[in-house]
């Protein structure tokens, strides 16, 4: 009986179609609708929407963090600054916070900085093997760098300075130019080109103060002559030991100075500094007649404040005392009564050890009891 049941069961199983049973070692069976399965050794299959795959021999693709590469035909850097600095320069009325400009040049690098109030734009031009890197740093934004292929950093700085000069119509607080003699020529040539341009004569380069460092006498003359005569009132010069040429002290810009500070250069004629209300500098030769002349001018000038200079040669103390008819107080001081001013006197100090001549004011209440006032 049991044998008949087993036989009938085997016959029923043969008539039905069951799916095969897979072992773990068997390969998978794929249907036609299933996506293909790739082995690790197979090459990748790309869709049309996928990005291309580069080989090691392909040129690199710039990342978003890489600096953009610009051609020499692209617009100057100053036109692309953020925030823009050119539109405010079109103002014809001096704002409450006058901007100041710094231009410096040294080996393989140039700097252009424009500061107005709390806003500062600083541009660095740096020489690299394949061109010039330009770094733009503003108060509002982080440093932005750009590569100019095939561009010379000095030429690019000159081009941007020319753009600035064309747009500048307000009175700057200060222009600062610094660099070695051989490196600063292109900056000065841009100033010269602007001053000689007939279209720019209506809007000359206006600044209240001009600071020049490291320039030779011909470069000083070029820079000084490029600035508007009426706006310039303060001049600062620092350089090597040389004599200021008469061409510099004869300029209209020099004649209109109110304040002058000279370090390194020597003035050959003290008569060229008598109009300056506040002077610090160096001169070559000072005679007793020169001291009398300066004393007379300063006594009659209502705006005179202070004058001191180091000399190469000066008249002796005894010669100066003979000229004034009074021996110096404490072997170095003379005091002169000021017209229409009883509260102050003009003092003169001459020291042979320090090679210094100084004119200034002193209140009569501070005068020594045994000091004699001339006049």
From TrEMBL:
Residues 202-325 form the DUF38 domain. Residues 1-76 are annotated as: Disordered. InterPro entries: DUF38/FTH_CAE_spp, FB224. Residues 1-18 have a biased composition (Basic residues). One of its GO terms (biological process) is innate immune response. Signal peptide: none annotated. It holds the Pfam family FTH. This is DUF38 domain-containing protein. It comes from the Eukaryota.
């Amino acid at each position: 009986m049991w044998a008949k049941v087993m036989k009938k069961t085997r016959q029923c199983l043969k008539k039905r179609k069951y799916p095969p049973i897979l072992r773990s070692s068997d390969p998978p069976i794929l249907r036609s609708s299933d996506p293909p399965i790739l082995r690790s050794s197979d090459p990748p299959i790309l869709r049309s929407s996928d990005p291309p795959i580069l080989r090691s021999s392909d040129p690199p693709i710039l990342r978003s963090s890489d600096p953009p590469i610009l051609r020499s035909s692209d617009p100057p850097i100053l036109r692309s600054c953020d925030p823009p600095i050119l539109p405010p320069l079109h103002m014809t009325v001096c704002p409450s916070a006058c901007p100041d400009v710094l231009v410096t040049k040294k080996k393989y690098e140039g700097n252009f900085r424009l500061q107005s109030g709390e806003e500062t734009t600083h541009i660095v031009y740096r020489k690299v093997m394949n061109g010039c890197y330009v770094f733009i740093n503003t108060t509002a934004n982080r440093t932005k760098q750009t590569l100019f292929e095939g561009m010379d950093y000095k030429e690019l700085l000159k081009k941007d300075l020319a753009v600035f000069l064309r747009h500048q119509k307000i009175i700057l607080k200060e222009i600062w130019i610094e660099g070695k003699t051989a490196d600063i020529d292109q900056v000065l040539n841009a100033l010269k080109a602007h001053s000689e341009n007939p279209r720019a004569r209506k809007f000359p380069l206006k600044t209240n103060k001009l600071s020049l460092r490291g320039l030779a006498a011909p470069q000083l003359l070029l820079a000084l002559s490029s600035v508007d005569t009426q706006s310039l009132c303060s001049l600062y010069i620092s350089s090597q030991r040389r004599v200021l040429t008469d061409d510099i002290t004869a300029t209209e810009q020099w004649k209109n100075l109110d304040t002058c500070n000279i370090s390194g250069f020597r003035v050959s004629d003290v008569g060229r500094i008598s109009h300056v209300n506040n002077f610090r500098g160096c001169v070559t030769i000072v005679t007793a007649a020169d001291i009398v002349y300066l004393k007379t001018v300063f006594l009659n000038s209502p705006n005179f404040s202070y004058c001191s200079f180091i000399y190469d040669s000066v008249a002796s103390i005894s010669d100066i005392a003979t000229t004034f008819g009074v021996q110096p107080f404490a072997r170095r001081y003379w005091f002169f009564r000021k017209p229409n001013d009883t509260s102050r006197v003009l003092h003169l100090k001459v020291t042979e050890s320090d090679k210094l001549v100084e004119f200034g004011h002193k209140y009569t209440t501070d005068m020594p009891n045994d000091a004699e006032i001339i006049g």
